[in-house]
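Blackboard transcription, Thursday session:
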Amino acid sequence: MQEAISITQISKSYERKIALSSLSFTVNKGELVALIGPSGAGKTTLLNLLAAILPPSQGHILIDRQPLSELMDHKKRAKKIGIIRQQFDLVGELPVIHNVLAGRLSEWGIFKSILSMLVPQDKEYAVQALIRVGLTDKLYEKTSSLSGGEQQRVALARLLVQSPEIVLADEPVASLDPARAEDVLELLVKIALEENQTLIASLHSVEYARKYFDRLIALKDGEIFFDLPASSVTDDHINSLYRLKELS
Amino acid sequence: MDKRWLNFELHKRKILTLILLLAFMLSLFFVEWHSNLIHSGGFITAKQIAAAFFTPDLSGDILLLALESSWTTLSYAAAGMSLVIIIAFFFGIFASGILVSEGKIKRYIRPLFRGQLGIMRAIHELVWAWLFVASIGLSSFAAIFALAIPYGGILGRIFADMLEDIPREPIKALEAAGASKIQALWYGYLPMVRASITSYAMYRFECAIRSSAIMSFVGIGGLGYQIQLSLDDLHYDEVWTFVFFLIALVLIIDLWSNQLRKRLVQ
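(Written on the board underneath:)
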């Protein structure tokens, strides 16, 4: 198995508060990893470190055996790592097609990206991506007029066009109702499998994490609480993960 | 008695109100209450002006003149606004600092352009008009430049503020997808402020028409100039004709602005 991500002794602290303390793990190519754990455990911080949005206080991150800190050209980084968050990531004022084609911006120069606003460039990419997420007829609709679930599908379509090797998803379904959430999550996992992407998603729902992912990494108070294949995670594990301090 | 009741913090607003009230009442004693306080003939003139409101001069000559002056006023305003939009676009983008990354350069660029915008709008368009008339004479360019500079300062400042105030998440997402600063401007910032900046620019266009009318008092021509001439001749009926044309101009711009906004917001 080829290593996609390797983290050694990563720590991150804000001011005095420690968000993550010496985390180490590796993720293989094509693995589907769910990050679970109570609020404030450090899930978002970990994803932000992996996305190079935040620098780690200590330790290093290797992406494809290359230090992440050397991957500073964000156009090249966009080919390696893609991010999907809650639905606020789209530009609501633009038609769906431009939000999807924004996934091509790392490939385009300035002239082509400005021209595309008038005459959409590489349109087939957007059409194909929207077919795969099941939004064929919404190409020219204003993005903000779409429902929350549809908007998250548009974000997935953008990710398809961007086509990174690693997908980081930070609570991708947190603001959706259960039916919509399961829909989007299923699609996210399906695409990752089809595209042979490595997927790391933070989730509130342990149920979804066990259903759709291969491996569960549980964080608690900035440390790894357990790191197990989804099949061997028991209810006892989960209960002790979410148990409040006072009760333990 | 409870000691807290004597606390200054608790009553400072009431005390200020009392002082202001006293100052006002005191000021009344310094007014010289005699018949010259209001110009004695003023009342008759006011009555004449009010009466003329109902009998505006609608003769062909005056209507033609009003139409012509409206066109002059409108064209000054439109030419001025075209310059304003160009100034505001570039200055606004640099004054918002969104094209440069956090750090040293941004610390200089942002205040530099914000300062320039400040200087531009610190001087009123009438003062600019005097300056330009003094330097380049009574030409149309004097009026257009006089309008463009302070309005560019205002619109540029608002544009910069709008660009800085939009939600950050979509921009961060664009950058994560590999967008450069200029691409993020085109795909994130500009679409997000488009509706509000258009509607504010239209409002400024409305103001520009009023200003352009006033500016003609400097002797550049237009509705304001005609109003001044008619006032000097005591032809109040003509004054009202010109004023009605001015109102009509502003209302037409307002209608246009509403149409435009409806299209952008839906």
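Lecturer's comment: Residues 8 and 226 of chain B are 58 Å apart (CA to CA).
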